[in-house]
Amino acid sequence: MAKNTRSSSRPERPYDLLVAGEINPDLILSGPLALRFGQSEEVVESAVLAVGSSSVILACGATRLGLRVAFVGVCGDDLFGRFMLGEMSRRGIDVSHVRVDPAGRTGLSVILRRERDHTILTYPGLIGALRAEDVSDDLLGQARHLHVSSLFLQTALRPGLPSLFARARAAGLSTSLDTNWDPSGAWRGVHQLLPLVDVFLPNEAEAQAITGADSAEEAAEMLSRVCRTVAVKMGGRGALARSGQQLVRVSPPDVIVVDTVGAGDTFDAGFLYGFLHGWPLEQALRLATVCGSLSTRAAGGTAAQPTLAEAMVYVDRMAG
């Protein structure tokens, strides 16, 4: 395993990772699901209330690997908000910086899962309520790295994100971004933000849509001109990463896939672990791919997230 390369020349910060993100649970309904309207009723095979939101799933994956994680976001003083804060705390995430809005409602995503496919219905609630000014300079000074996911759901955060990333950089943090898909297809603000991003974590479709490239490789090359490191998720075909002139590809391990929800977020957690520990690009990509793959073994985004020891068994096997 690669050695931790944290600098000993400056005081240790209490958090490895600060996540500025959305908070909502997932209600996962599974079954044949031939949905019909007209006051019909359909019986599902299972119903699970699980930890949701790309940002929280990533934070859970990061603490599972051993990173010290703080979360800043907004939720309501309601059943869903209390569920999320309780589950986040239980997994070791510091939620003391989360703002609880008694006048608002926590968002909710309903995931309708049929075999290996799914669709998501989201009630936004307070998902978009976090603002850049909610992330104080004092809090930034306590972390080594700032991550943002779900750019286009976080509507109040998005306008101030360039200034937030600039403040983070000035405070000595590295930064990362996973935009997720832009429903409008316009990708407004992304190109302005990318020069402030150290690690960009799109999937293949997102990378090609942002750049207009014909392939993941071409998109990674274009994105690497403005970002320090780019890692592109390609589902069952694994992933590739580029930093400067270095390009690496990794195939996923064989696993029995139950549910792909949150796999990309768990991939992100694995890659950031490697990045923050100064690992070589290929080793960080292996860990990310293993983490994302292993997370698909159970329903929901967090139930099958691996520990570092569990993931390294697969990483070492890939390296051998």
How would you characterize this protein structure?
The protein has 320 residues and is of the alpha/beta class. The protein is built from 10 helices and 14 strands. The strands form 3 sheets. The protein has an 8-stranded mixed beta sheet with strand order 4-1-9-10-11-12-13-14, sandwiched between helices. Strands 3-2-7-8 form a 4-stranded mixed beta sheet. Strand 7 and strand 8 form a beta hairpin. Helix 6 crosses helix 7, helix 8 packs antiparallel against helix 9 and helix 9 packs across helix 10. The two termini are 13 Å apart. The N terminus is likely disordered.
- The first-to-last residue Cα distance is 13 Å
Helix-and-strand structural type? alpha/beta
Bulk shape: globular
Helical region count? 10
- Low-pLDDT stretches: 1-9
Average predicted confidence as pLDDT: 93
Q: Looking across the biggest beta sheet, what order are the strands in?
A: 4-1-9-10-11-12-13-14
Order of helices and strands: EEEHEEHEEEHEHEHEHHEEEHHH
Largest sheet: 8 strands, mixed
Strand content: 15-25%
Q: In which range does the helix fraction lie?
A: 25-40%
Count of extended strands: 14
Spatial extent as radius of gyration? 19 Å
In short:
Helix content is 31%, strand content 21%. The chain has helices at 54-65, 79-90, 137-140, 161-170, 190-193, 204-211, 216-223, 263-276, 281-294, 308-319; strands at residues 17-20, 25-30, 46-51, 69-72, 74-76, 99-101, 108-114, 117-123, 145-149, 174-178, 199-200, 229-233, 239-243, 246-250.
